Amino acid sequence: MQKRFVTLPQMFVQVTNHYSASNTAPDRGDSSKYVYMRKVGKEYVGMNYDEFRTLTESFAAGLAKLGVQRGDKVGIVAENRIEWVISDFATLCMGAVNVPIFPTMTSAQESYIFNHCGAKVIIVSNKFQLNKLLKVRSEISTLEHIIVMNDDVETDAPNVIKLTDVVKNGAASIAPSERKIWFEREAATSLPEDVVTLIYTSGTTGNPKGVMLTNTNLVSNVEGAMDAINPGEKDTFLSFLPLCHAYERTAGYYTLFASHSTIAFAVSIETVADNMKEVRPTYMTAVPRLFERIQGRILTMVEKDTPAKQKVFHWAFDIGKRYVRTKLAGKTPSPFLAGQYALADKLVFGKIRERTGGRLKAFISGGAALPKELAEFFMAAGLLIQEGYGLTESSPVLTVTRASEPGIGTVGKPFFNVQVKIAEDGEILAKGPNIMKGYLHDEEATRAVINPEGWLHTGDIGVINERGNLVITDRKKNIFVSSGGKNIAPQPIENTLTPSRFIDQIVLIGDKREYCTALIVPDFEYLKEFAAMNGLLYPDLPSLLQSDALLKAIHAEIEALQVNFAKFEKVRKFTLLEKAFTVEDGEITPKLNVRRHVVEKKYADKIEKMYAEA
After folding, report:
1. Pairing of strands 145-148, 119-124
2. Any long-range contacts for 576-581 (C-beta under 8 Å, 24+ apart)?
3. What is the per-residue DSSP string for 512-524?
4. Residue 122 contacts residue 129 (beta carbons within 8 Å)
């Protein structure tokens, strides 16, 4: 694949110049094309490349006026919005290093990260994020300025300035023609080996580590993603996963920008279903939780339909699954099956696709393993899911299934510029230009994960199947050993049980135990519907969770879902929890990975009770 650029600043200049209104060459594209779209009021409005370039240049000049220099650290604490990407590209192109974090982080977590990296400027989105930062401002010795994106935020705190004022000051500090020359000179100074961003891994134990990613790391991953997914200038992408996450940043932001696609921002996770209909995207990155929500809503609606419509729905999906399994096996469906599928598509699947806007080429799934049953459900409906795998330390994508070679239960083949192999103990190792430079201020931790030959130890266990596709089995450190000496991988078991409509979150327990149990956070909305359908009366939630009818129904569903597990892998007992696992309580990371040690400690009494009752 021919290299289009070698640094992110070069990518920014090249793409925005391509669509500049001042560039009159007929093959240079449409200057009115939108680079980003966001919802204002009831409608989505777009921002073209010239406006985006001008704002980014002016903001970069404004940062320079505040004293930001090459190599300085600039924090970003904000939800997905256009000001996020303006802040990102402005810092990159002037040679600063940006440090984006999840807006759900606490003040204490922000204090640790921004102290650790030595942040000079921190950009926040709104009053809430500002107040959170002001609580620990005195603890961050390097911090000189705080910039607020929202114009309606008023404060008398010193050295707090609005983003629009930084843009105005930057625009006034240098003439437009000279600003463009200055900006492109600064962008051209960026070298392939320069660290451009620090992404702090949330980690399941200990303090987060700052992953140092260079231009080469990120550009090589963008090239790999462009080759594997192949988006273009006519594509529209709906973005809802956090931009501070390496997955969304590379796969759903830089890759689409480099491909001249339009990126529309969802208002929130709660509005994604409506925003899909409004934007009508052709691509979306997603996590399994989104697919679970969509499937859950569909099944709930079906349960409210007439028996006749329910029968048609279940018939259609039986046909769809047979059709998909035949295709994935490399066989041609019989004319009779193909005809049945065409009818099922007309009666059921086409209507489901319309709920996504009707133009979707593929979902790109990552962040966690996608349960096979969930993937099959969507593929039966004619919605392709390309599942990928990677780590922040690998910028982040290592492998992905291709549209030309879809699969279920696999995360596909490596990018063309990435090598993957399996170590003797089953651990997945990766090597390539996308592997991080290292952890900031932590050479020992860097050496622990990158060996002298440059192979990254992912900490995941997997195999490469007969078709050359990678199959993840579990996290290396999550492998249980039962009291009987059996190795148990919890993740595949949890993934198999999660599609249950009763289950929202689940944590398998079984290390050094005689048998497996589970802590289950139920889907509280579905529980209410179940109670109504079955005439269950309950004064409060704890009473409902102790209902014999409910517990028997959940037990029956778990038994059905785990029918193919070995006896030592099966969940024999479970406890329903009254509250979901949250980032704020430290039970899950911002990437929604469960901190098992925290959960097991917090619910130790409930766990011991399950085993004491044996």
Report:
1. parallel
2. 576/520, 576/521, 576/522, 576/545, 576/551, 577/519, 577/520, 577/521, 577/522, 577/603, 577/606, 578/541, 578/542, 578/545, 579/521, 580/504, 580/505, 580/521, 581/505, 581/507, 581/521
3. TSSSEEEEEEE-H
4. no
What are the sequence ranges of the domains in the chain? Answer: 8-190+230-283, 479-612
CATH class label, 479-612: alpha beta
Residues near 543 by Cβ (< 8 Å), separated by ≥ 6?
none
Q: Residue 488: its pLDDT value, please?
A: 84
- Could you tell me what percent of the chain has a pLDDT over 70? 96
Question: Is the peptide bond prior to 522 cis by the omega test (within 30 degrees of 0)?
Answer: no
Q: How far is CA 215 from the centre of its chain?
A: 21
Residue with tokens 């090249």: 14
CA angle 464, 469, 470 (to 5 degrees): 55
Q: DSSP class of residue 267?
A: S
Q: Phi and psi dihedrals of 265, rounded to 5?
A: -95, 125
CA diameter of the chain:
78
CATH of domain 8-190+230-283: 3.40.50.980
Q: Does an H or E element contain 116, and which?
A: helix 107-117
What span, in angstroms and rounded, lies between the C-alpha atoms of 161 and 181? 26
- pLDDT tens sequence across 249-297: 999 999 999 999 999 999 988 899 999 999 999 999 998 878 888 888 8
Contact 85, 73 (CB under 8 A): no
The H or E element that residue 311 is part of is helix 307-328
Q: Are 6 and 258 in contact (CB under 8 A)?
A: no
* All residues at 6 or more sequence positions from 147 whose CB lies less than 8 Å from its CB, including other chains: 121, 122, 123, 124, 160, 161, 162, 163, 166
Tokens of 147: 């910039």
- As a whole number of angstroms, the distance between CA 554 and CA 105 comes to 34
Residue range 182-203, pLDDT digits in tens: 999 999 999 999 999 999 986 5
Instruction: Count helices and strands (H / E) in the chain.
Output: 23, 26
